[in-house]
């Protein structure tokens, strides 16, 4: 039993709403080490995603992810727009033409998303970016599916690992993005993009019923 196009639409809608609800927190984090717009950027993008998803008419899980990607790319400015857009676009390609998303498909989508973010932004683990949340999430998702876990367990493991990965960015000195302009002064602050990645994954896990 996997997730149908309706399940995936509901999960992305839930993630969009939750990210919008975290607008102020993400703005605050980005004020500390960036330009204070991360929550605003994502709220704009995910509000547009919700409007697009209201239109319906998706022929499979991949098309839901693809519309999310193109909407984010065209509405979110800054670094995060193209990065999240690429993540959802690669995830869509990885899902392909399956009509039901199972645990293995979730893992390949998450891995493709990470590879897309890295291809686009060239950040490595430890650079204090969203990559520091997404990398451990992919590893945890893989181990969970290898141990026989289904979608809810896979997403819960990914969300837990992303939370820990995001928290671990506090100690790091930023080497990519605006925060890198601060050098050593970027240490001691949670990276906004790592936090939004953790928020997104938690919302997807909650929507999957884990
Ligand atoms: P901007 O910095 O252009 O204002 P946002 O504030 O929306 O864009 O997003 C900032 C977040 O984007 C950072 O917290 C970081 O997680 C992420 N980010 C920035 N540059 C990169 C990169 N090269 N690779 C991966 N993530 C990045
Ligand atoms: Mg910013
Ligand atoms: Mg900006």
TrEMBL record:
SUPFAM superfamilies: DhaL-like (SSF101473)
Record keywords: Kinase, Transferase
InterPro entries, sorted: DhaK_L_YcgS (IPR012737), DhaL_dom (IPR004007), DhaL_dom_sf (IPR036117), Dihydroxyacetone_Kinase (IPR050861)
EC number(s) given by UniProt: 2.7.1.121
Single GO molecular function: phosphoenolpyruvate-glycerone phosphotransferase activity
Coiled coil: none
Catalytic EC class: transferase
Cited PANTHER family: TRIOKINASE/FMN CYCLASE (PTHR28629), TRIOKINASE_FMN CYCLASE (PTHR28629:SF4)
This protein's name: Dihydroxyacetone kinase subunit DhaL
Protein source organism: Allokutzneria oryzae
């Amino acid at each position: 039993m996997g997730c149908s196009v309706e399940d995936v639409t509901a999960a992305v809608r839930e993630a969009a709403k939750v990210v919008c609800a975290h607008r102020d927190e993400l703005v605050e984090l980005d004020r500390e080490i960036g330009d204070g717009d991360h929550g605003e950027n994502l709220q704009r993008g995910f509000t547009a995603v919700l409007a697009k998803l209201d239109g319906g008419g998706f022929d499979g899980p991949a098309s839901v992810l693809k519309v999310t990607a193109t909407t984010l790319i065209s509405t979110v400015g800054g670094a995060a727009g193209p990065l999240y857009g690429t993540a959802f676009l690669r995830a869509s390609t990885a899902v392909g033409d399956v009509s039901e998303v199972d645990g293995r498909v979730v893992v390949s989508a998450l891995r493709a998303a990470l590879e897309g973010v890295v291809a686009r932004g060239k950040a490595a683990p430890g650079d204090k970016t969203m990559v520091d949340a997404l990398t451990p999430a992919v590893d945890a998702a893989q181990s969970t599916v290898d141990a026989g876990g289904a979608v809810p367990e896979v997403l819960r493991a990914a969300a837990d690992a992303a939370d820990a990965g995001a928290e671990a960015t506090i100690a790091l000195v930023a080497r990519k993005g605006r925060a890198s302009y601060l050098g050593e002064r970027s240490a001691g602050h949670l990276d906004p993009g790592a936090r939004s990645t953790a928020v997104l994954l938690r919302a997807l896990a909650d929507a999957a019923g884990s």
